[in-house]
Amino acid sequence: MKIFYYTILILGSFIYPAIGDICKDPKIDTNSYTTIDGMVISNVACIAEFSVDCKANKDFILIADKEGRQLPAVKSLDNKKYQISWTEDAENFYGGERGVKVYDEETYAAVKKAHRNNEDVKNIPSAFFLSLYHRGIYYGPWVSTEFVATAISVLLFYIAYSAKADLMA
């Protein structure tokens, strides 16, 4: 009879950790960063740094899905914050609110399966949504400073030449 109890105890110790904890009602604190200087970049870098506060005090493996691309959430050294980063083409990346859905291990496996079978992933619930605001790409002033300097020089030359012509007449 003792062997039976020991067997159940050993099997239970292997099965219990395999049952995944799910983060119910997560509290998310997010900071986001994007590059905006369009004069020197061809791709916009997006970085979302966030912390997840769950009732279950457990480290989660989080993965974001951005239009079929897998974006793993990298955990910081202090084990309190995660970071997801990706790049987008600057020509097609307009200002405004955007974001990514973040999944845990189990739900991301369902997302991968849906992508593999060409199914719709909208029905698969994400753990949470990370919102990111991009204010737009700055491509420089509308009029270059060289043009302004040249126009002022021509205007000053015209005023000086007209004043000289009036004095000579």
UniProtKB/TrEMBL annotation:
Subcellular location: Endoplasmic reticulum membrane
Signal peptide extent: 1-20
Main location: endoplasmic reticulum
Keyword Disulfide bond among UniProt keywords: yes
Membrane-spanning residues: 139-161
GO cellular component, one term: endoplasmic reticulum membrane
Entry keyword Endoplasmic reticulum: yes
Keywords: Disulfide bond, Endoplasmic reticulum, Isopeptide bond, Membrane, Signal, Transmembrane, Transmembrane helix, Ubl conjugation
Domain of life: Eukaryota
Record note on quaternary structure: Heterotetramer of TRAP-alpha, TRAP-beta, TRAP-delta and TRAP-gamma.
Family: Belongs to the TRAP-delta family.
Task of the protein: TRAP proteins are part of a complex whose function is to bind calcium to the ER membrane and thereby regulate the retention of ER resident proteins.
Family annotation (PANTHER family): TRANSLOCON-ASSOCIATED PROTEIN SUBUNIT DELTA, TRANSLOCON-ASSOCIATED PROTEIN, DELTA SUBUNIT
Name this polypeptide is given: Translocon-associated protein subunit delta
Species name: Oedothorax gibbosus
Source taxonomy: Eukaryota, Metazoa, Ecdysozoa, Arthropoda, Chelicerata
